[in-house]
Design brief:
single chain; mainly beta; four-stranded antiparallel beta sheet; 4 strands
């Protein structure tokens, strides 16, 4: 097994809002996710980089990337 590794992780954040989907126009739930790269040593995450945030609408699974400044 590897002593050190890097990988991409996706985490659903604790933010959900009911709204109208801008793509299909249906009433939907908007979920917020964060993705990031991480480096681990002996299976322990040491640091993260390249964080990105996006929203996903549950009605049609459309995805929109959020601006980092928000």
């Amino acid at each position: 097994s590897d002593v050190c590794s890097s990988d991409l992780e996706e985490k659903k954040l604790d933010y959900v809002q009911n709204t109208i989907c801008p793509k299909c126009g249906k009433f939907s739930r908007m979920e917020v996710y964060m993705t990031y790269m991480y480096f681990s040593l002996f299976f322990v995450p040491i640091f993260k980089w390249s964080k990105k945030y996006f929203v996903k609408y549950t009605c049609c699974n459309s995805i929109y990337i959020l601006d980092e400044d928000i």
